[in-house]
Design brief:
The complex is a heterodimer. Chain A contains 15 helices and 23 strands. In chain A, helix 8 packs across helix 11. By secondary structure, chain A is of the alpha+beta class. In chain A, a hairpin with a 2-residue loop joins strand 8 (about 165-170) and strand 9 (about 175-180). By secondary structure, chain B is mainly α. Chain B has 2 domains: about 1-40 and about 165-200, no CATH class; about 55-165, no CATH class. Helices cover about 80% and strands about 0% of the residues of chain B. Chain B has helices spanning about 5-10, 15-40, 45-80, 90-110, 120-140, 145-165, 170-175, 180-190, 200-210. The chains are: A alpha+beta, B mainly alpha. At the A-B interface, helix 1, helix 2 and helix 6 of A face helix 5 and helix 9 of B.
């Protein structure tokens, strides 16, 4: 009990909760502004900060009655001016082709959902009536151009639908914490975490993604594409940080979350500014906001550039230290060819800076002659659990009875489990380098890559994630 | 009994009215505590407080029946009028109407089949109908599952608060020492200054520091 109280006190000192955020960090200035997307946009544009273009507005019921839907471009986004947390936003990808002349006009929304003119009109009416508005009062509809995802996001995430964005928390004009927010089928193209989007922590110093979460639980791959979420390098990272700071300065905000999307042609655009940024970003970064806020609370900056330098220095994570250790002569892409032990077969391995240890699939392990080990291991019938204590106890008990075994506890999206570890000698074929290592044998679940080389075995390499081989 | 209480009772104020008024600050404090310190999600404070007061009048059985009816009919109405494409207000109107009519039916059943004599103030039932509006509003704004969760947490919170308040001990204490209600306001101030993690957040963020 006392131990629990201690943990609570410690966590409260480092982590930002809703009470603390609302009481001590939300400032009136950004609340007033962030309740009107139109006003924020005006200020940002005056300060030469790029934002998505507004197509048109509908200010009242009369304007809705007279609204000519034919004037809209094929793809666009509908937003309520005073909306909160992505509610009421609809993304339209295109017009539906009419089969008959008499058919009603219709548009295509995320997940191939068809919205007719009547559907849209009801939604617009609901926005104007203030059902999405923060103060439940009459609101304005904004039609905005749809951002086309940059090539980078398409390639590194295989995102087909929806617009990922980068959220940067700014406090006293310092970038404090950042995350990449990725839409899923469940979130209907929106990147908001509580709609079912994915949040991936970003190392402030490097702009490389770290841990991913969905609905507050850690995941390793995107549920729709099965693409790995850690180790992605965000392009134009400094420009993104710079834009966030400039935005915060422009609206004279003390504490806010700046959302930035990467457009194919226009580069980083400021999408939105939130006065009450969500707190799950702390889970994705495995780091508390409170201690970071306090770290800069007495500092003052002169310009965005020096703020970036200071923040990178204070908040840069472990990845940086590892990279400094690298002497860096050989560069690997996202995949490479390897040989294992004395086996003559050449395997394609995924280079994964997000994983610490190397892992191989059961199928490959069987080919290498570890079938007996897997069979022996399967007899233990280990379940996935979230109980840290129990899983380590189970491992210790098994090791006591089977002293020859080598086992490790691994964490995955579903919880923790135990996997066998084997000694391997990996030979990088093209790089002509051999590494002696220990690898875990992954379970027969739907792993996309059969062979993953983790950070521990990449000490002699630099990884270029934009390169495929 | 307190002098003022006796004075009011002698001058024709009903004991129940007095009790309800004294119970409001206590209910508000309990709900405030549950929201800001434990982290229960509920509709706004006012809606939750009057739900407690409605329970105090309908009693547990009818109160729970009505709240479940609202949830079921909200679901059914949503399902059947999905293709009609109505806007928000008319959906709520339909849900409220159907629940109101179904209460008549459940009263009829409880009278004829179980011979239960239920004397309930009609206003308390109408207050519970307000929950249908909050439910619909949350659903349109934050999605169906979130709407259902917040609704259920509101009902459970209101029920627990009701049980704490509506018993002979609390009843006796409040009428004897009405100043307890003033004390509740002091606790409200303390909770208003509370800036540590809510218990639910403690559970949610616990894994951050472990590694």
């Amino acid at each position: 009990m006392i131990k629990l109280l201690d943990e609570y006190k410690k966590l409260s000192a480092t982590t930002l909760g809703i009470n603390d955020r609302n009481l001590n960090y939300i400032d009136k200035n950004s609340i007033n502004l962030s309740n009107s997307k139109i006003r924020i946009k005006k200020i940002l544009n005056k300060n030469n900060i790029p934002t998505p273009k507004t197509i048109t507005l509908i200010k009242n019921l009369k304007e809705l009655e007279d609204f000519d839907f034919n004037l809209l471009p094929n793809s666009f986004v509908i937003k309520p001016n005073k909306g909160l947390g992505g509610e009421g936003i609809i993304i339209i990808y295109g017009r539906k082709k009419k089969r008959k002349e008499t058919e009603e006009d219709a548009w295509i929304a995320p997940n191939k959902q068809i919205l007719t003119k009547t559907d849209l009109k009801i939604h617009l009416l609901n926005i104007i009536n203030g059902y999405y508005s923060i103060n439940k009062k009459q609101d304005i509809v904004i039609f905005e151009e749809r951002i086309i995802n940059s090539q980078f996001l398409k390639e590194s995430l295989f995102i087909k639908e929806g617009l990922p964005d980068i959220r940067v928390i700014i406090f006293k004009n310092f970038p404090i914490m950042a995350e990449l927010r990725i839409p899923t089928i469940e979130s209907k193209g929106k990147s908001n975490l509580h709609s079912g989007g994915i949040g991936v922590g970003i190392d402030i110093a490097l702009g490389i993604t770290t841990n991913a979460i969905m609905k507050d639980s850690y995941i390793e791959t995107h549920p729709d594409t099965e693409e790995r979420l850690s180790g992605i390098t965000i392009p134009q990272w400094n420009k993104i940080l710079n834009l966030s700071i400039q935005s915060s300065m422009a609206i004279k905000s003390k504490f806010s979350g700046i959302d930035i999307a990467l457009d194919k042609d226009k580069g980083p655009l400021v999408m939105e500014i939130n006065a009450r940024p969500g707190l799950a970003i702390q889970i994705a970064n495995k780091s508390g906001l409170k201690e970071r806020l306090e770290a800069v609370s007495k500092l003052k900056i002169k310009n965005p550039e020096s703020a970036i330098i200071v923040s990178k220095e204070i908040f840069g994570g472990e990845i940086e230290e590892e990279i400094e250790e690298i002497t860096g002569k050989i560069i690997l892409g996202r995949f490479t060819k390897i040989k294992i032990n004395d086996d003559s077969e050449i395997y394609k391995a995924k280079i994964d800076t997000g994983a610490y240890v190397t892992s191989i699939s059961q199928d490959i392990a069987e080919k290498l002659g570890f079938k007996y080990l897997i069979e022996q291991f399967d007899k233990f019938g280990i379940q996935i659990t979230n109980n840290i204590g129990a899983i380590y106890d189970t491992r210790d008990n098994i090791l006591k009875e089977n002293p020859g075994l080598n086992l490790t506890v691994v964490k995955s999206a579903n919880g923790m489990t135990i996997r066998p570890v084997i000694n391997l000698s990996i030979h990088f074929v093209e790089e002509e380098i051999s590494v002696e290592t220990k690898a875990t044998i992954t379970s027969r679940s739907h792993m996309k890559h059969e062979l993953i080389i983790g950070r521990r075995d990449l000490k002699n390499f630099l990884v270029d994630v934009t390169r495929n081989t | 009994m307190n002098e003022m209480t006796i004075f009011l009772l002698r001058n024709g104020i009903q004991e129940h009215t007095l009790f309800i008024l004294l119970a409001v600050p206590i209910a508000a404090t309990i709900i405030l505590f549950a929201r800001d310190i434990i982290g229960i999600q509920s509709f706004n404070l006012y809606t939750t407080v009057i739900a407690v007061l409605a329970f105090a009048s309908t009693g547990l059985f009818l109160g729970i029946t009505i709240t479940i009816l609202i949830l079921i009919f909200d679901y059914i109405v949503r399902y059947f009028i999905k293709d009609l494409k109505l806007h928000y207000a008319s959906k709520v109107a339909i849900v409220i109407s159907i629940v109101a009519l179904s209460i008549i039916l459940s009263l009829y059943i409880s009278h004829s089949a179980f011979n239960l004599n239920t004397h309930i103030s009609v206003y308390s039932m109408l207050i519970l109908l307000l929950l249908a509006d909050s439910l619909s509003f949350t659903k349109i704004n934050k999605g169906n599952s979130k709407g259902n969760t917040v609704y259920l947490e509101t009902i459970i919170l209101a029920l627990v608060t009701f049980i704490v308040i509506d018993n002979s001990i609390t009843h006796m204490l409040l009428l004897k020492y009405p100043y307890i209600s003033v004390l509740a306001i002091l606790i409200d101030i303390y909770i208003g200054k509370f800036s540590a993690l809510r218990l639910r957040e403690f559970y949610r963020f616990r894994n951050i520091s472990k590694e």
